[in-house]
Amino acid sequence: MTMKEFNKQICDLKTEAVNDQQAVGIYAAFAHPVRLTILRQLAMENICCCKDIVNRLDLAQSTVSQHLKVLVLSGLITYKSEKQSSLYQINPDCFAVIEQHMQQLMDLCVQGNCHYDS
Asked: What fold is seen in the domain 3-110?
């Protein structure tokens, strides 16, 4: 599957409920502080190339590229090639889907349906 096909599949999630397996892949992408920093930067700047992100982080370009790849594969960000660079931006559809998934889980737990023994 190409990255373009994968991004389309993630965008299509907006029209259907996300299953737990899909959600786990998205949540896993949040599980690193560098990726959270990248997401914040993209949210503030709307669109960035890899060089822009590298310039703001104290990391090698190869490390940033690996984190960007995880974020793209999760669907949290999208990219498009433009000449000799790749442009990255937030995928709001994916955030909406994962927000809905988390809200459903939180609603269950807040309503007292999630119990544990202390």
From this structure: Arc Repressor Mutant, subunit A (1.10.10)
CB atoms within 10 A of CB 15: 8
| Cβ pair 94, 13 in contact under 8 A | yes
Alpha helices in 3-60 (DSSP H): 3-12, 20-29, 33-45, 50-56
Handedness of CA 60, 65, 66, 67 (dihedral sign): positive
Provide the token pair at 62.
């190869």
**pLDDT for 7-49, tens place per residue?**
555 545 444 566 888 889 999 999 999 999 999 999 999 999 9
Domain boundaries in the chain? 3-110
